[in-house]
Structure formats: structure tokens, C-alpha cells
Fold this sequence. Notes:
- By secondary structure, the protein is mainly α.
- The chain has helices at residues 3-20, 31-40, 45-82, 89-128.
- The chain has one domain.
- It has four helices and no strands.
Amino acid sequence: MNFKKISRFALAVALGSAMAFPALAKAEGSAATDQAQVSTGTQDPKVAAELAKAAEYEKKAAEQEAVIQEHEKMKEDYKRSHGINGKNEFLFTAMQKHCDAIIHDAGKLKADYEGFAQWHRMYAADLQGK
């Protein structure tokens, strides 16, 4: 099984769990409360570990969003600065393919990270009995 199949499977499991256990989905937006509990030490260490993993994945998703924005800007800047004429068209097409591929892959990775973060938040909520 390759990485894409594994990550898609994990995302499917996470989304399936969200649909099967709607009560757990409430925990998704409670990051501030979770962080406050972690900082005051009033939380189970397992729950804190799951919330830390969720925060890690959210950070990675934000990093992928930055990559997406960077390459969207790069593509637009290249289009403006090089223009499209007979001799620059090949370079523009190559740069556009480069940026589009990275934007596409980063978008898929970002979605995977967001799914993993949601899963860890739901698991933390399950550990808390919510």
C-alpha cells in the first residue's frame, strides 16, 4: 500500500467516524478550551497528547496553505513579469505546470492534515467522554 492510499484510507476513517458519532464532532472547535486545560494541567495526559497531535497537524495544514499561496502568487507574478509572446510561452507554460502541480499536491496534503487533526480532536473528546 502506498502513502496516498494510506492517507486516503485514514481520511476516510476519520470522516466516517465523524458521521457515525456526531456527538464527537462538537469537540472540533474547542481548541482554546483544550489549550487552557493543557496549560493548567487539569487534563488527562492521553487527551493532552492527542490534542498536541491535532495542533501539530493543524500547523502542518497551515504550512501547506502557505505553500499554496506562495505558488499561486509565483504563477501570477511570472505571468505578469514575462508576458506571453512567442519566445516566452514555453517558459510560462513550464512555470505554470510547476506551480499547478505543487498547488494540487499541497492542497491534497493540507486536506489530509486537516482530517488527521479532526480525528485526533474527536479521539481526545472520546477519551474525555464527550
